[in-house]
């Protein structure tokens, strides 16, 4: 098909063509970035925490208004009570829980005199068996042992235990050129830095905050029992018994010491829902915006194409009288739309990259892969074809005689 007549016609109706092209460009820029953000959010929400079967692992927090005479004995008593509940497979005291959104985080250093931290980390304290309870996988070294555990009063002491485990992501930062096993790492720097020996590497363990960056997987587990009035216990229940075990554990703890306050009782799976609720809400909002933009763009193409068909009824009749087939008329309008859409997606690609650059600087998003722009271009071309097909088909059905009399 000769493109010059189509181009000449567009120049005579350039205002409408430019408006449609700009609408396509704006849609491509927004949709490609929106789809990228949606994918990023959903991938982040689906990241494994390292916990085996999150629906079977729950944290239960219980506090006392009075300071216990022997905090360690109180914790051990509570652990024994929980362990005695039918359906409990494992229990461990800990200061925080994966995806729990509250806990400890500090900088790690490879030496006392190091000025800049080697890495930030989320700090889990436990006398054990946290690895077993969470269902974590040790890929190098060993698990914590009872003889590794130190009791620390954080109100009066600045030390965090002498033996620890690190996640694989953190191990790469602490020792990028070799194994981290056996190395001494410091929590903090200077004279007050607290050293510990790395004895094992965990395949994966998310922090309580599960940050969207790599920091979300930088975790340390130290063999430490903290003397606190608030007890946080992580419990693994038998398959299919989580709800009953949660209720029975809560009743057992409250019955042992009436008047205590139950602070928290929820599974890691519930933590995941709470942690990523805003991310999924944003993804849902962006999906809605994307669909509305596509509908508006398609409506604009349909409206403009219908207007042009009505304005060109005489020309259509003349072409039909000169021998043009219905397919020729249909192909003309489809080609015209492809030319307009092509100009729009060309401009839209530049808009998309500029918008992504703004998002990178403001929201710390990764660079937009070109594949998203390519997918957006194909989607908008297909949308344009589908949107213009109806008006183009109506144009192809206009009889030559009727079109001529309507002049």
How does this structure look, described?
The chain has twelve helices and twelve strands. With about 400 residues, the chain is of the alpha+beta class. It folds into two domains: about 5-45 and about 275-405, no CATH class; about 55-275, no CATH class. It has a six-stranded mixed barrel with strand order 3-4-10-7-9-8. It has a four-stranded antiparallel β-sheet with strand order 2-11-1-12. A hairpin with a 6-residue loop joins strand 8 and strand 9 (about 195-200). The mean pLDDT is about 85.
Calculate the terminal CA-CA distance, rounded to whole Å. 26 Å
Largest beta sheet, briefly?
6 strands, mixed, barrel
Count of distinct strands = 12
Quickly give the structural class: alpha+beta
Overall pLDDT score: 86
pLDDT < 50 runs, ≥5 residues? none
Radius of gyration: 32 Å
Per DSSP, what share of the residues sits in E-state strands of 2 or more residues?
A: 15-25%
Shape: elongated
Approximately how much helix is present in the residues?
40-55%
Strand ordering within the main sheet? 3-4-10-7-9-8
Give the total of domains: 2
* Total helical elements: 12
Helix-strand sequence: HHEHEEEHEEEHEEEEHEHHHHHH
Quaternary state reads: single chain
